[in-house]
Amino acid sequence: MMSAPPSPHTASRRSFLAEPQGWLAFLICAQLLLWTLVPWLLATSLPLDVVSDGLSWGHEWQWGYYKHPPLPSWTVELFFDGLGDLGPFLLSQIAIAATYGFVFLLGREIMPVRWAAVGALLLAGIYYFSIPSPEYNHNVAQMPVWAAASFFYFRAWKTARLRWWIALGICAGLGLLTKYPTGLLLATMVAHLSSTRNSRSAFASPGPYLAIATCIAIISPHLLWLYRNGFPTLHYAVARAGNETGVAARFFTPFKFLAAQAIDILPAFLAAAIAGLFAWDTVHLRRDENLRFLLWLTLGPPALTFLVSLATGLGIRDMWGAPMWNLTGLILVQAAVSRWDSVSLLRLKICVAALFVIGLAGYALANAFVPQLENRPSRIQWPDRELAQTFSTIWQTETHRPLRIVAADGWLGGLIAMRADPRPSVWIDASYVKSPWITPRAVARDGALIVWRVKDRPQPPAAFQHLPGLDVLGVKSFTWPRTPDAPPLQIGFGIIAPSPWRK
Question: pTM of this prediction?
Answer without folding.
Answer: 0.93
